[in-house]
Specification:
The protein is an alpha+beta fold. The chain has 2 domains: 90 residues, AF2212/PG0164-like (Elongation Factor Tu (Ef-tu), domain 3, Beta Barrel), CATH 2.40.30.100; 80 residues, no CATH class. It contains 6 helices and 9 strands, in the order E-E-E-H-E-E-E-H-E-H-H-H-H-E-E. Helix 3 runs parallel beside helix 6, helix 4 crosses helix 6 and helix 5 runs antiparallel to helix 6. It is globular and about 45 Å long.
Length: 184
């Protein structure tokens, strides 16, 4: 697949700085769901997971988004409100997800689940992390961790019934859809 180049305006949702791909750029990706990409922003190299924005339905064009961390923003001399130059292309080399502390602790308590966790692909680990974090209450999150341990202990490599095409980050979404940007 060839590189996809575009301009995009960075924006804030809560405290995060987000880049949402233009719909035509997103349409060139191989999946409507999670997609790992490498590329440049204002000439600065990066590699990240693109999340789906969950915007489906009549009159809506689905796209992808990602959060820019402080280092990437500083290196690219960019901030929310700026328009940046982006080139990216999908990669088959997945980066490891950041495993939440509560999930790490649970995995350490179950040698069988931990062994399977280490054996599954980074892509599958992303599915588990997204499924666990996609809830709003600590009680539901704890239930998801318990279910994850049970499933991993029984040999299941991915969460069941998880729609990979929806926005699963509750900090920046509502009803599985990326929130609208904040206007300054």
């Amino acid at each position: 697949m060839s590189a996809i180049s575009f301009e995009a305006k960075l924006f804030k949702i809560n405290t995060w700085t987000i880049l949402r791909l233009p719909e035509d750029a997103s349409a060139k990706l191989p999946s409507r769901g999670m997609t790992m990409v490498s590329g440049t922003i204002n000439g600065v190299l990066f590699k990240t997971l693109l999340e789906p924005d969950g915007k489906y339905g009549v009159g809506k064009q689905p796209s992808h988004w990602f959060r820019l961390d402080k280092k990437l923003l500083d290196d690219a001399s960019a901030a929310a409100g700026d328009t940046v130059q982006v080139t990216l292309e999908p990669t088959k080399e997945w980066i490891e997800p950041e495993v939440p502390d509560d999930l790490k602790k649970a995995l350490l308590s179950s040698p069988k689940a931990e062994a399977l966790w280490k054996d599954i692909t980074p892509n599958a680990r992303w599915d588990w992390v997204r499924w666990i974090r996609a809830v709003k209450t600590s009680e539901t999150r704890q239930k998801h961790i318990e279910v994850a341990l049970s499933k991993l202990n029984s040999g299941e490599r991915r969460p069941c019934c998880f729609n990979r095409n929806l926005c699963s980050e509750p900090y920046v979404s509502h009803n599985w859809t990326l929130l609208e940007p904040q206007i300054n």
